[in-house]
Design goal:
Layout: H1 27-53, H2 55-66, H3 73-85, H4 87-90, H5 95-106, H6 119-122, H7 132-148
Helix pairs in contact: 2-3, 2-7, 3-7, 5-7
Length: 154
């Protein structure tokens, strides 16, 4: 070895440090994991509550799909509306007032201006007095309202 620090004889192999171990985790990683776990828990609780709160909606859509007598459309809508908005607000509504309510809560005009306006007439009329295409459209509008209406919060 020479005394010259620039001499190539003084070169040594590069010594790499050991790789950082995966375990135990650093404190910051524990904090991130705890935050992710808490967010997952909150999201799961929210999804469960939403699923449970919409059980009436799924049941009404199922009933509407299985309906054989079209006179049952309005009672299904009425039960769903009472569940979603409360008896105090919906139970006294009938006829045009109920159709206005459906339009207002569904963000549509299908119940007051479309073929669905004929739904109250089905209670007392026979099926043959209402055109089949209008009947199909009215049932489709009822199904759409069941899927998209926004229930009151609380």
């Amino acid at each position: 070895m020479s005394g010259d620090p620039a001499d190539l004889a003084n070169l040594r192999d590069i010594v790499l440090p050991e790789s950082a171990p995966w375990w135990p985790l650093a404190p910051g990683a524990w904090i991130v994991l705890a935050g992710l776990l808490a967010a997952l828990l909150v999201a799961s609780i929210h999804a469960y509550r939403r699923h449970k709160a919409n059980a009436y909606r799924r049941e009404a859509v199922r009933e509407l799909a299985a309906l054989t007598d079209m006179r049952g459309v309005l009672p299904i809508l009425k039960r769903a509306a009472i569940t979603a908005y409360g008896r105090e607000q919906v139970a006294s509504l009938s006829g045009t007032a109920f159709l206005d309510f459906l339009d207002r809560t569904g963000g549509t005009t299908a119940f007051t201006a479309g073929p669905a306006r004929l739904l109250p007439d089905l209670t007392f009329a026979s099926r043959g007095t209402i055109p089949a295409t209008d009947l199909t459209t009215a049932v489709a509008d009822a199904g759409r309202w069941l899927r998209i209406h926004r229930a009151r919060e609380g």
